[in-house]
Design goal:
Structural class: alpha+beta
Largest sheet: 3 strands, antiparallel
Low-confidence stretches: none
Strand content: 25-35%
Strand order of the largest sheet: 1-5-6
Radius of gyration: 15 Å
Mean pLDDT: 95
Order of helices and strands: HEEEEEEEEE
Number of strands: 9
Length: 121
């Protein structure tokens, strides 16, 4: 039997998380405990749309698109922030991506950013 939040509480937490930290930044490795490690050359943060949390999961509901990226690198992670620049770090996760070259467009498709919370069973 797994321990954790009730599904309803998990949904509340996830909706609050994205409300408080709606901006997503790219990284070339794990962002670390404060979200600043392995920052991508591309510094633009995106504010993708999300559907309401359901079943202890919250997924992006629109593409997050970076047009004309600033450098050639592999994006492997994202960090979540309270503001489009500066602000407070709220969390991080991984992204499956291909290498990009300077001036490429990079897209995380709708449903490609997923936040989850463990629930009791």
């Amino acid at each position: 039997m797994a321990e954790g939040f009730s599904t309803a509480a998990a949904n509340t937490v996830l909706d609050a998380q994205v409300t408080a930290y709606p901006w997503f930044k790219l990284h070339t490795g794990a962002p670390g405990a404060n979200g600043t490690a392995n920052a991508a050359t591309e510094t633009t943060r995106k504010n993708p749309s999300f559907a309401a949390a359901s079943g202890a999961s919250k997924a992006s509901s629109a593409d997050a698109v970076w047009t004309g990226v600033a450098g050639s690198e592999d994006y492997t992670h994202w960090s979540q922030w309270s503001a489009s620049s500066g602000g407070s770090f709220g969390g991080s996760g991984t992204v499956t991506a291909n290498a990009v070259s300077t001036s490429d467009t990079f897209t995380i498709p709708a449903g490609g950013i997923v936040l989850t919370v463990p629930v009791a069973s």
